[in-house]
Amino acid sequence: MEWIVEANLSFETAEHDKLRKIFAYLNPCVKLCDANLSATSIRRKIVASYEQHKTKVMEVLQSSPGLIHVSFDGWRSGNRHALYGIMCFFQDEKNKPRKIVLGVPEVSTRHSGTNIAAEVLEIIDSYGIKNKIGYFTLDNAENNDSAMAVIGGELGFDGRKRRGRCFGHILNLSAKALLFGSNPEAFENQLSGAAALSETEHDLWRRRGPVGKLHNLVVDIDRSDVLSYLLRGVQQADMDQSIDPRVRARKPLNIVVDNDTRWLSQLYMIRRAIKLRPYLDVMILKHKQAWEQDNRSKRTGLMRRSAVQPRICLSENQLSNKDWDVLEHLATILGFYEVTVKTLEGDGIQRKRKRGWVGSYGNIWDVIQGFEFLMAKLEEYKAFAADYPDPEHFRININLGWQKLNKYYTILDETPIYYVALALHPAYRWGWFEEHWGKHPDWIATAKEMVQEVWETEYRNLEVVLSPGNEPVAKRRRKYQNAFEEYCEQSRYEPSSRLSTPTTTPARMRSSATPESPRDEYEAWQQSWVPTDTDIRDPIAYWQDNRAQYPRLSRMALDFLTIQPMSAECERLFSAAGRLVTPLRSRLEVDIIGMCLVLRSWIQAKIIDDLDPLFVPTQIKVESSARSEAGARESMASFLGRARELAEEEKGWE
């Protein structure tokens, strides 16, 4: 059953004849006792397992020492159910970050903020964690604003201050403005989504500049076997003529078709087209020559009047040298977006990565740096585009992409999330703000006041109980870094830069502590910088180590450093749901879909050990695990002997 749930398999897998033969081979008693499970049994056991294990999950969540953060988003299943995936992120008793799916309810009514909030609150209440809810990471949909107002009113906090905006969604809006100019949403709504382009849609894309013209070209190639084989043939002929054996060993490449206005697919389309540029030019020329030959009158040598020239051969659809220059620049700029979003789309959990280094992707303290990094890159291209004579789309769209980023950068102070996370990272602290925002002292003052307010009102007088935690393992320093990570590395400062601007507390926020009162941990920590802080890669492990010295400040740091910068986990949940609800499983009920996805996440988080064994009662399993190895062998011998006896008895009935 665990295999079926975790791999998103059909319940009818349990009835497959080959699988049952494997079970019978491994244990003849399965067939003799008719112990095979049916699809109906699997469904029933999934429901029972969900109800059985939910109590344990509730205990784990309720025993979390910090806040539980939430992310939710909507998705429509293939069998036409409007589902909302609700994820939570928390720290276990050892302060290790964890994540699970809380529920996947259906919102069958209008998707207003009130209706969404009602479903989210019902799920939260079912786990008994209303008093532990922290911060939310949501996309920029307007109904999320009203949903947070309702949730905040119910749970007793200001919903706007507890709501972070998905950084990936912000980058998507900026990238689409960069690619398609003003009002890309209206442009997207005009597209039918059909594989082949109508003349109207072809014209809509062409008017969007070089990217639109390239889109038309690759779609026409993809929809034509003649063009596809011609492109491969042109490449193969060139490779065959090469004297380099490595070139001759290559295989022809196909074009990459973008997914309407999904910007990463646009980037991959552009990159492949740049690589194939010389072959595309030859392909168009050969296709035009073949068309002219087929449509030329043998008697007069003139083109037939009824002949219609293919779209890719028309001059207005051709990509000029200027267009290719723009595409190359866009590929470079979108490459910066790509490394930024890939660095921030993880779950913030430390893991061993490829090449042996240990680290995490998806860290909340990198969001502000992500804005600064991308806006600086766009500033460079804005200066470059100012003197760029043609085409107009390049100049305008660079500025539109920058404006979209700036719009959301200027409203970061709606919530203290981003300021607290960066200020309490031991390698950055307030030195980062003073270095990058030195020309905007009012920004720094606002950020410091917001962080101080959180400390004074929520954590300074917090009663804390230190829980045991494992010491963090030594981590191998990562050698490879992408452009965004290199930018972040340059933001780590020496002591002189950091200590030259001590943190000051606004007068109205200063504590009324007396000499007999406990020291202010926040102010003490700001003065505690040591040179090795610059090398800290895992601030969560740092604050775990310093819990005894800063019990309240460490609680505040761990609460904020584990907030998600993106709602990417919801997207991953929907990807799993898409593999679960296939066209062949269109009759799956909403409750079963949700239970399967929730159980799957509990297993992956190792909160529950397994959903099996299927054939051994729980009490027998517990007793068996306590036996000695010799006792286990004796039990197995007895079991096999009884199986043989049953087989002999069966022969008498043949």
What is shown here, in short?
This protein is mainly alpha-helical.
Count of spatially separate domains: 4
Rough outline: globular
- In percent, how helical is the residue content? 40-55%
Radius of gyration: 31 Å
Give the structural class: mainly alpha
Mean pLDDT: 85
Give the end-to-end Cα distance, rounded to a whole number of Å.
34 Å
State the low-pLDDT regions, or none: 470-476, 495-518, 614-628, 650-654
Beta-strand segment tally: 7
Largest sheet: 5 strands, mixed
> Number of helix segments?
29
Looking at the chains present, what oligomeric state does this protein adopt?
single chain
Strand content: 5-15%
Task: Please explain how this structure is put together.
This protein folds into four domains: 2-164 and 567-604, no CATH class; 191-331, no CATH class; 337-561, no CATH class; 619-651, no CATH class. The two termini are 34 Å apart. The protein has 654 residues and is mainly alpha-helical. The radius of gyration is 31 Å and the shape is globular. Residues 470-476, 495-518, 614-628 and 650-654 have low confidence and may be disordered. A five-stranded mixed beta sheet has the order 3-2-1-4-5, sandwiched between helices. Strand 4, helix 6 (142-155) and strand 5 form a beta-alpha-beta unit. The chain has 29 helices and seven strands.
